[in-house]
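Example 3.2
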Amino acid sequence: NGGAFSVPSKCAKLIFPPLDLEAKLPTQELSITDVHGNVWEFRHVYRGNPKRHMFTHNWSQFVDKKKLVGGDSLVFMKNSAGEIYVGIRRVKKFATPAVLQKNELVVIEAVKLADNNEAFEVVYYPTIGDGDNFVVDANVVEDAMKINW
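Structure, written as tokens:
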């Protein structure tokens, strides 16, 4: 942890408002909302040798509160209004055979409901399995939100 988080440069440039890199100490305060609606205030700085984007202020509290461990990944998102969100993709843990068998029954039930044009609920646990196929393009979600279901 060390009290700071090194933000990948590509992420910083795509998601965060631009820093004035010509300033003596390029710094900005960022309000980032987690997936539970909690707002986190981070200080985004550009410093070090070699220079890199970093979060300093409140980073340790975020790590402690979210119980981050080595291998966890942060997923930063920005909506069309420019609001920034953060989610956590936990390091993979392997499910036990009993959990897998229960999941199979739930999937079978969902298929039956879908076949009958009935509603069903999807609960996604990013710590189990490979979530790469669960990501939906933002435009698809925004278009779906416009439909009066």
